[in-house]
Amino acid sequence: MKKNIFAAFAAVCAFACAVGLSGCSCIDGGSSGLIYNLSKDKTYYTVRGSDAFTGKKVKIPTTHNKLPVKEIEKYAFENCEITSVTVPDSVTLIDNGAFYGCESLTTVTIADSVTQMGERVFYGCKKLNDIKMPAHLEALGNNAFNGCAALTEVKVTGTVTDIGEKTFNHCFELKKVTLPDGLLTIGMDAFNGCRALAEINIPATLTKLDNRAFYECSSIKSVYLPDGVTELNLSVFEHCSALESLSIGKGVTDIRKYALVNCTYLEEITFRGTLTEWQSVRINEENKFLTVHCTDGDTTTFPENDIE
Fold first, then answer.
1. In angstroms, how far is CA 201 from the centroid of its own chain?
2. Which residues are CB-neighbours of 297 under 8 A, at least 6 positions away?
3. Residue 100: which residues within 8 A CB-CB, separation 6 or more?
């Protein structure tokens, strides 16, 4: 009877490993607990795993069966109780949700070979507080660090052009972010709720700040927007209660609803254009009343005209 029960249990575990069920309760591929899949062209392996690791530390190998390990699969370690991850210099892709919901994960080291990090890759890793990002990153997916409440600093480098929707949403302890030269857009809710964020560089190449991009970033004191930014979108700086200094370029054409509402300490803004150019900006009347200093020496008030 006991033999039959054990056999049935083993069969269930084998099936779970074979189909890649989440829950991290199975072991395959030897003592490491990693499962490898050969690529379609049979030149490299992808990898996924379980929580059956010594010390719950994940160290992805560079090779398997004499071929490189190049990709960490979608949701490869979803909800695993791992504490650290080391990604080697053979890997180029960390796919969507690879470490989704790993609530015990605290430390991540990613080799510079990684160029693609997918959507929700560290979503909900609420204890993650130490991460070394790859130097040559080309793409970072939406929601990549959403809910990483303990994360304090991130340096995004490489050729990333978009910080997407909710990338750092509700990273409550995030104090410093370094963004790459060449960045074009900061997406909707990208830094929503980053209440500790006090230091951020906005690259001169930026052209778009989407709705609520810095909503409730209540520690930011100074923002300099490059000339390419044409709109201050819905609630983009709403509840940035520590904001004292805001400089916007002459290319701005619209300041939308609630863009500067509840910016308690903001009393004036600098517009890097003439009074005539300022008077053509469409401004929602529900924004805060401010003094506007134009670079030609003229001063006016904000808002001055209404948006339909």
1. 15
2. none
3. 75, 78, 79, 120, 121, 122, 123, 124
* CA separation for the pair 97, 79 (Å, rounded): 10
**Percentages helix, strand, coil for the chain, rounded to the nearest 5?**
10, 25, 65
Q: Are 110 and 130 in contact (CB under 8 A)?
A: no
What's at 142, amino acid-wise?
A: N
Here the tokens at position 25 are: 């309760």
| Residue 233: Cβ-neighbour burial (10 angstroms; 0-12, 13-18, 19+) | buried
pTM of the model: 0.86
Residue 56 corresponds to which tokens in the numbers above?
A: 């719950």
Compute the radius of gyration of the chain from its Cα atoms: 24
What phi and psi values does residue 12 have, to the nearest 5 degrees? -60, -45
pLDDT bucket at 199, cuts 50 / 70 / 90: confident
What element of type H or E holds 250?
A: none
Q: What is the pLDDT of residues 49-82, one digit of tens each?
A: 854 444 488 999 999 999 999 999 999 999 988 9
Please enumerate in sequence order all residues whose Cβ is within 8 A of that of 44, keeping only pairs 6 or more positions apart, or say none: 38, 67, 68, 69, 70, 71
Per-residue model confidence (pLDDT) at position 50 = 59
Q: What is the mean pLDDT of the chain?
A: 88
Q: What is the distance between the alpha carbons of residues 285 and 155, in angstroms, rounded to a whole number? A: 37
| Distance (Å, whole) CA 16 – CA 51 | 13
- Separation between Cα atoms, residue 218 and residue 159, nearest integer Å: 29
